[in-house]
Amino acid sequence: MHSIAAIERSFRDYFRHWDIALPAAAVEARSPGHIFERGWHIGYVWDREDGEEYLEVLAQHRMTNDRHFRVFASGRVEQLPAAADFYSYGQDATDEEIERAERDYVEHNRRVYADLRMRGLLPPAGGNLHSHDINEYLRSGGLTDAPE
Question: Strand, helix or coil at 77?
């Protein structure tokens, strides 16, 4: 039997070293939210797929890469696209290849950040922890919902 307890347990286990758990009221109401604790920004939303409930999570900490995943009531975890931390190119790359690698990196990150913000997993531009706003700016050439 699938249960919401499996989602809560998986979330709690994932963040056990920081003693972070989902707020009980958010679980009961299945309300989305953001947790800002111990250097983490954790955005989460509830939904269903093929009749199975899941919690979608964006976890950000300045000391590690962003993680984006879904935890299903069955216990299954599905990894989803997150912002890239860096880009690379070959040792003998031309200037054009280097420019393309950087452009692809920035474009990927802008798409990911915009999607996460639209889905409610990121707070409005400028509303995250400063270190995460800085990372977003550097990785995507600006905050994704800031005026051009």
Answer: strand
147 pLDDT above the threshold of 60: no
**Run of H or E including 130:** helix 130-140
Measured between alpha carbons, how far is 56 from 47 in angstroms, rounded to an integer? 8
Q: What is the pTM of this model?
A: 0.88
Helices 130-140, 95-118: axis angle to 10 degrees equals: 140
116 φ, ψ to 5°? Answer: -60, -40
Helix (H, G, I), strand (E, B) or coil at 114: helix
The Cα 16–Cα 21 span in angstroms is 8
Q: Dump pLDDT digits (tens) for 5-44.
A: 999 999 999 999 999 999 999 999 999 999 999 999 999 9
CB 145 within 8 A of CB 114: yes
Phi/psi class of residue 51: alpha, beta or left (left: φ > 0; alpha: ψ in -120 to 50)?
left
| Domain spans of the chain, in order of start | 4-140
Residue from 62, 51, 45 nearest 120 by CA: 45
* HSE-up (13 A, CA, CB side) for residue 25: 2
Which two structure tokens, joined as six digits, stand for 35?
């947790």
